[in-house]
Amino acid sequence: MRIVIDMQGAQTVSRFRGIGRYTLNFAKALVRNRGRHEIYLALNGLFTETIEPIRFAFDELLPQENIRVFSASGPVSEINFGNKSHRQVSEFLREAFLESLNPDIIHICSLFEGYLDDAVTSIGLLGMATPVSVTFHDLIPLLNYEHYLEQNKTFLAYYNSKLAFLR
After folding, report:
1. Is the pLDDT of residue 146 over 90?
2. pLDDT at site 15
3. 8: nearest Cα among 74, 63, 61, 83
4. pLDDT of 48-61, one tens digit each?
5. Which terminus of the chain has a lower count of CB atoms within 10 Å, N or C?
């Protein structure tokens, strides 16, 4: 089985928090226990400063050719409405890139990225049949709607767009 892991949770500002640590540790554990399965890591090329550290973190664990970088058309942060066309194009580019790796399954370690930075996450825009799994970290905005979503319509639209990918 070929497993592709979207590593953007270890590339965004989340890399300094629990999501980033989880993403790295999850991927390392999967790689260490892969048996006969192939693992590919997918990195976002817009986060250039994170690519080499991630490659280094997997240097003894995974062949470097299994760490792939996709190119996006930035900037794409959702907080800036002017980025909408770049983001939409980049979502299609990312999904096509992931499919080009011929995965049996794709795992997204953090779908709720890209509001303030250049992460690109989406599911199913190309209508491909490859199963996608997601680690869902961010229920707090749903639990505290008044604090996180009600007063920020831009963030509400962003959050709802990510939730829609999970349906």
Report:
1. no
2. 85
3. 74
4. 999 999 999 999 99
5. C
